[in-house]
Design brief:
Elements (H helix, E strand, L loop, with lengths): L31 H29 L4 H13 L13 E10 L4 E7 L13 E7 L8 E5 L10 E7 L5 H7 L6 E9 L10 E7 L3 H13 L6 E8 L8 H10 L4 E7 L9 E2 L4 H7 L8 E6 L2 H7 L14 H5 L7 E3 L1
Parallel strand pairs: 7-8, 7-11, 8-9, 9-10, 11-12
Antiparallel strand pairs: 1-2, 1-6, 2-5, 3-4, 3-6
Helix pairs in contact: 1-2
InterPro entries: CBR-like, Cbr1-like_FAD-bd_dom, FAD-bd_FR_type, Flavoprot_Pyr_Nucl_cyt_Rdtase, FNR_nucleotide-bd, OxRdtase_FAD/NAD-bd, Riboflavin_synthase-like_b-brl
Membrane topology: Single-pass membrane protein
Function: May mediate the reduction of outer membrane cytochrome b5.
C-alpha cells in the first residue's frame, strides 16, 4: 500500500474547531541535591561509555572485516553531527526511487552526496531544481519543498504533480532511478521557532500542501512545541488529496492540537465534508479569530486560489498586498504569510 493512501473514514468532515486546547503539565524541577546526584551519575556513565568505546576499538583493531565494520559503527556513534548537503551550490543528485502516488503525482527520492548527510534545510525553506531543454536558451527553474524530514540521512523526497504543458513537472515525471537532477538550496521562507505562535492556520490547495506539511511535521516532531494547527485543504477530487494518510495519522494522534478540514470540487456520494471551493463561511468558522494576538495564517496554492484567499505575492521577497477573504475577515498583513 502506498504511503500516501488513506482510508475514507479518516477523511470524514469534522465539527468546527471550538474546543479548548490543554497544554501538558510538567514535573517540578529537581532540588539542588538531586541535581548534584544526577550530575555525578552522568559523569560516571560518561566515563563508562568512554572506557567501552576505547576497549571496543582495541579489540576490533586489525581483526576480521566484520569486526572492522563494527569498529566503524562505534566511531560513527561518537562523531560530530552529520554534514549538510545544501550549502548554496548546485548539486547533481541521483534519483534513487520513484513512486506513483496518484494519477498525476509522484514521489521522487534523491540521493544526497554522502550517506550520513542531512539536507541542511531549515524550516521553512525549499530547494530550487533546474533542467535545460535541448532547444531552449535558458534552463527551467522551479522551487519545491521536500516532504522528507530535515534530519533524514542520505536523501530528500520531493512530491511532484504533473501539470499539462508544465516543462519542469513533465521532465521530473520522466525521471527514473539512475537519472540525475540539478538541485540547489536552501531557499529560506518563513523562519520557524517552537511556540513562535499560539495557533497557526494553513490554507492550502493541491501541491501547496508541501510547505504546510513541512511546518506540521516540524511542530509535531518536537515535544516542546505546543503550537495548535488548523489545516484547510482544497482539491478537485478525493484522489487528489496528497499526504492524506500522514495528515490523518497526525490528527488522530493530536486531536486537541491538530484539525484538518477538506474541501472537494468533485465529491463522491459518501462525502460529508465541504464542497466546491474554500470560501469565506468555512474560514470564518474554523480559523483562529484575527483579534487573537499571536496567530499566523499561511496560504499556498494555485494562483486562482491565492487571489481569492489572500492575493498573490509579487515575488519571493515581496508578499504583495493582502486581499481577498482574509482581508474581508479582518486579518492584517502581519498575520498572513504567502508561500
Amino acid at each position: 500500500m502506498s504511503l500516501f493512501v488513506a482510508s475514507r473514514a479518516a477523511l470524514r468532515a469534522s465539527a468546527p474547531l471550538k474546543r479548548s486546547f490543554q497544554l501538558r503539565s510538567y514535573a517540578t524541577e529537581p532540588t539542588s541535591s538531586e541535581a548534584a546526584k544526577s550530575s555525578n551519575l552522568s559523569k560516571y556513565l560518561a566515563g563508562l561509555g568512554a572506557v567501552a568505546v576505547g576497549a571496543a576499538a582495541y579489540l576490533y583493531s586489525g581483526s576480521s572485516p566484520a569486526a572492522k565494520k563494527a569498529e566503524e559503527k562505534i566511531k560513527d556513534a561518537v562523531t560530530a553531527a552529520p554534514s549538510k548537503a545544501f550549502t548554496g551550490d548546485w548539486l547533481s543528485l541521483r534519483v534513487e526511487e520513484v513512486e506513483l502516488v496518484n494519477h498525476n503525482s509522484k514521489r521522487i527520492r534523491l540521493k544526497l552526496p554522502e550517506e550520513n548527510q542531512v539536507s541542511g534545510l531549515q524550516v521553512a525553506s525549499a530547494v530550487l531544481t533546474k533542467y535545460k531543454p535541448a532547444d531552449a536558451e535558458k534552463p527551467v527553474l522551479r522551487p519545491y519543498t521536500p516532504i522528507s524530514d530535515e534530519d533524514a540521512k542520505g536523501y530528500i523526497d520531493l512530491l511532484i504533480k504533473k501539470y499539462p504543458n508544465g516543462p519542469m513537472s513533465t521532465y521530473m515525471h520522466d525521471l527514473v532511478p539512475g537519472h540525475t537532477l540539478d538541485v540547489k538550496g536552501p531557499l529560506p521562507k518563513y523562519p520557524w521557532a517552537p511556540n513562535k505562535h499560539d495557533h497557526i492556520a494553513l490554507v492550502a490547495g493541491g501541491t501547496g500542501i508541501t510547505p504546510m506539511y513541512q511546518l506540521i511535521r516540524t511542530i509535531f516532531n518536537n515535544p516542546n512545541d505546543k503550537t495548535k494547527v488548523t489545516l484547510v485543504f482544497g482539491n478537485i477530487s478525493e484522489e487528489d488529496i496528497l499526504l492524506k494518510n500522514e495528515l490523518a495519522k497526525l490528527e488522530n494522534t493530536y486531536p486537541q492540537r491538530f484539525r484538518a478540514f477538506y474541501v472537494l470540487e468533485k465529491t463522491p456520494e459518501w462525502w460529508t465534508g465541504a464542497k466546491g471551493y474554500i470560501n469565506k463561511d468555512l474560514l470564518k468558522t474554523v480559523l483562529p479569530e484575527p483579534k487573537n494576538d499571536n496567530i499566523k495564517v499561511f496560504v499556498c496554492g494555485p494562483p486562482g486560489m491565492m487571489d481569492s484567499i489572500s492575493g498573490n505575492k509579487k515575488s519571493p521577497r515581496d508578499q504583495g498586498e493582502l486581499k481577498g477573504i482574509l482581508k474581508e475577515l479582518g486579518y492584517n498583513p502581519e498575520q498572513v504569510y504567502k508561500f
